[in-house]
Amino acid sequence: MNRIIASLAVAIALALSATESRAAELIMFERAGCVWCARFNAEIAPIYAKTEESQVAPLRRVDLNSPLPPDLAGIDPGIFTPTFVVVKEGREIGRIRGYPGDAFFFGLLDRILSSTVLEPAKS
């Protein structure tokens, strides 16, 4: 039941985000040798682009062993990998530290997307 409600919220978010100028992004801060990054890569990465969540927040990977891209200069990646940060219009709107498994990952991500994408636009 919760997954159905979350899916509906994401569907509404998809409709609303189509009218906005800049979409959100799901930034994955990762580094080589990270066991939890490898688990995410095995369980989620192959399907993420096919999910409703990816339509709202496409996945972008950032290697912490490389310099941060200039557009992420204001975002603290933290020290744990993976760290997932949802960024919209250059600011952080939510974060998931670590990889808690597929069900928890999508539950946490849906909560971030539905609470921030559905908030009223600021004038």
Automatic annotation (TrEMBL):
Gene3D superfamilies: Glutaredoxin (3.40.30.10)
Domain of life (superkingdom): Bacteria
Signal peptide: 1-23
Keywords annotated in UniProt: Signal
InterPro entries on file: Thioredoxin-like_sf
Name this polypeptide is given: Thioredoxin
Organism: Bradyrhizobium zhengyangense
Lineage: Bacteria, Pseudomonadati, Pseudomonadota, Alphaproteobacteria, Hyphomicrobiales
